[in-house]
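Need tokens for this chain, all 498 residues.
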Amino acid sequence: MVVGELMIKKQNFINKEVKEITISYDKFAKNPTYGKSEELMEANDCIKTYNFSTLTGELKNGLGLKDFAVVKNGVSYSMLPEMETEFTEIKDIWTLNWLDTQLKNVHDYIFCMANDNIIYYGELSVPECNVYIDHTFEGTPEVVKIENGGQEKFLFSSEQEVVMLGKEGEQVLSNLPKFLDACFHFNKLFAITRGVRNALVVSDESDVRKWTDDNITKLTFSDERGRLLKILNFNDNLYIFREFGITKIDAYSVNSSFGIDHLHLSTSYIFPNTIKVCGGKIYFLTTSGLYCFNGSSVEKEESTIIDKIDKSLTSQIAAEGFLEKYYIACNLKFDEEKIGCENEAYTNNCVLIFDTVTKDFQIIRGVDVKKFAPLNSVNFTKMCAIFRNSNKARIGEFIDGGVVFGSPFKKQWCSPFADAGYNSKMKHIRSFQIKSKADCVVKIETDLESKEYSISGSEKTQRIKADARGYKYRLTIQSSTASEQTISNVKVTMAVFL
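Here are the structure tokens for all 498 residues:
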């Protein structure tokens, strides 16, 4: 609308009855609502927020990322692979602990597959990542911890090979089927084969080096639940997650008999990289939403945020459970602005952190997480991750403060385009108040005009004179500071022409 038209609008309401109202923005702790008509929402609801933490009912700097490091004797160690050739990328990462059964102590390790397709690893207490498995993998392997010969060992299986790593070194096992996923249960290795995805293999032979076609039992599944995705030992029971359901395997320790119980049939595809134990349940994402499984039944976690995820990237969505929080790396469509990784080619642009107890969400925008790597042991409790593109040679650690690898990302909270309960009535927003510890920007948009107000940080509540007219309006709060930020006590005062 041009200035002349706006002046006419102003003059038309000079003699109208006026009612002054104040809207309090006191719902910061409420999760944003997506997909609902803005006309049906309250003026102080939220339709979009990112990079703010709203858990306390205030707007604070959300989570950020820094380069992971282990500090020993005042020196920081990055745990990045120490290669003879140029290190340019972490293709995969695993955080594993290993029990020395002789000395009865636990060791924490990080394993990284580098750009040369060699897996480097190091113990966090040392801390260096300069040991490597003397084998060049042709593809990215899956990893499972087993017991073999009285010792804990790791099996790395790609499409071409299986390598066992133990205290005595590595060994290529040509006799073992290449597996997509596996777990150790009742001293037996259960594995989902890569070649035949509807088959589960197991053997009474506890030493995997002695597996042969004669002592392997193969369980096949041809029902409508689809191919096998993941197998989990959960609460001393064995569960197979499949493309469209969950099957329980009763595996008895004394013989080769098995009981099969189909527990859940889904009409929605289950994303394989999202099946994770978290807070005493198994959480997983499907094309129809987020679900949790308690060992016997499945329940949906209702969320309009989850509904907004681009679910076409079935193999790129990743998740992890950590300290009763479920982390999801995904792609969300926000707006035309570009933040962080959105300034280059990206796959995922967002991390959703779902608190399984309070049902609250935190939303980090601008990071392309490839895989999460939780460290949860006696000595280390951190959530880490690896990335794509410009950050592909980094291990990141999630931290408070809203700064991502040294750069403060833009944070935003946005209300719906609403009429404050007065449909088709002209409003004149005359002032607003805000308490903002650091600098921020308040933007008031109406159907007639748009105004921005730069607010200097203060420990006191500030009252700001405003001048914006329209039938509907939207309030947006933005902050890009690296300083500690807390925004609260936000109220908007307007005149309504009745």
